[in-house]
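Q: What structure does this chain adopt?
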Amino acid sequence: MEPIDAAAEQMRSLMGDIEHYKHTVVTEQDTRLKIIDRVFAEVLGWPLSEISTEDRAGRGYIDYKWTVNGLARLIVEATRDGRDLGGSAQVPGRAYKLNGPVFHSDTVQEGIDQRILYCGQKKAHST
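A:
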């Protein structure tokens, strides 16, 4: 089985588990513990040694920082269930400008600004 197929199968299994306890996912911490942590480890197979949580970045704290060989590669911010991030009506696979009309709400702009700041402070970059 190809790794992507194994990950898809693992995600299906995880979604089945979540269906049984989704009513208990209320806070950001619930989301992190019961969903995000499991996706990182069980589905994506990201080594725990390359994941940092609550890493200080300026005046805030990053929920997750993924690294590869010690270099920051991905910053992930969790949010509580039900918070509108403005992406639900978008077409998957399309590109959108961060300062364009799609991401116009104050909530979305706050999140974008926070993530840009954190990525800059942690020197997150791609290769």
